[in-house]
Structure formats: structure tokens, C-alpha cells
Amino acid sequence: MTSLGFRRFEATNLSHFELLSGHAVEISTDYRLFSLNSQALLAWQELGATAATLYIEDDAENMAELLAADVSIKRRVIAYCGVPAITSKIRIKDVRSDVPVVSDRNDGYMVTNRDGLTVVTPNVMFSLTAFKGKLKEMGCSSFILDLSQISSADYGRIINAFDRGVELNGTSDFNFNRGLV
């Protein structure tokens, strides 16, 4: 990997730290490595990460504490993304990208199949674009806009909403305002 010029990696699983150890690389954590307290942030740092993405289902109060925590690891917040409900290498019967998926609660899902991987993502995307100003006041200086689940025709709309700090209709902020349950 480094012989091919790759120097920056995102760890989404604890095993990635061992895989990357001994290489001169920069490691950051993905939200899937739950960063819900300062001890988690310190653990990622001890394992070699220089940046950590805060957990996507965290609430504003806890995020504020994490952004203010006296730790040197850089903290990032996802401001927009599609959050997979299912990711599987095992074929899911009757689930294909050309067939709409609707839950028993009438929630819609989109399906992508790529490289033998099936990803089922809710039609309702996650967005904190409306809280950009609040997050900056809390101390966040690094944001992620993951546009991989949407059409390139929508990139401008998402980036513009983030730049202006406005709400994107039809999205969810998960627990940001409701609080952790």
C-alpha cells in the first residue's frame, strides 16, 4: 500500500491499526470506531491516530464535551452522509439495486451493489449542515461531507447548504438534538 504512494488511511475497525502499524502513514478514525468519550479519543491516539471522527449518533451535549476535551487528537464531525443500515458480502435474497426496498414501517432504502458488496442505505440522509455554526462554536474546525451515496448532480446543493449552514429538507440529525437514549 505505501509502495503505491498511499500515506493517509481511515481506520473503521480496530484491526486496521495493527495492519497499518510499522508504516509511515497518517491514520484517522471513522465514526464506526465509537468516539463517545475522551478515553476513546486517547485510545485512538495511543494506537497511532492523529484524527478521530466523532460518533454519528452522538448528541450535541456530548459532542460539545468531546470537542472541548483536553486531548491533542484532532476531532472531526460528519456534517452530511448516507448511513448504511446493512453492508454485506453475503447475497441478500431479493435485494437488488433495481428493486425499491421498503420496510414494514414504510421507510424507503436504496441499494448499491459494487465489487461483491451490497449496501442498503435509508433514503433519508444524515445531515448536520444546519448546525455548522453551533458546531464551530463548540470548537469543531474539521467537517466531513460524504457524498458517495448521492448523485453528482446533488453535490452543489449539499455543499451550498453546508457553506451557508442551512438545513437540508428531508434529512435527519439523528440524536443531535434529541439526545442519546
In short:
The chain is of the alpha/beta class and 181 residues long. Helix content is 23%, strand content 24%. The chain folds into two domains: 2-83 and 126-160, 3-Layer(aba) Sandwich (Rossmann fold), CATH 3.40.50; 87-124, no CATH class.
Instruction: Please tell me the CATH architecture of the largest domain by its name.
Output: 3-Layer(aba) Sandwich
Helix content: 10-25%
**Biggest sheet layout:** 6 strands, mixed
Mean of pLDDT: 95
- How many discrete domains? 2
Distance between the termini: 40 Å
**Count of helical segments?**
5
SSE class: alpha/beta
**Assembly state:** single chain
Runs with pLDDT <50, length 5+?
none
Percentage of residues in strands: 15-25%
Question: What does this protein look like?
Answer:
By secondary structure, the protein is of the alpha/beta class. It folds into 2 domains: 2-83 and 126-160, Rossmann fold; 87-124, no CATH class. Helix content is 23%, strand content 24%. It contains 5 helices and 10 strands; from the N terminus they run E-H-E-H-E-H-E-E-E-E-E-E-H-E-H. The chain has helices at residues 15-20, 38-46, 60-68, 132-138, 155-164; strands at residues 8-11, 26-29, 49-53, 74-81, 86-88, 101-102, 108-114, 117-122, 126-127, 143-145. The strands form 2 sheets. Strands 1, 2, 3, 4, 9 and 10 form a 6-stranded mixed beta sheet that branches. A 4-stranded antiparallel beta sheet has the order 5-8-7-6, with no helix packed on it. Helix 3 links the parallel strand 3 and strand 4. The protein is globular, with a radius of gyration of 17 Å. The model has no long low-confidence stretch (mean pLDDT 95).
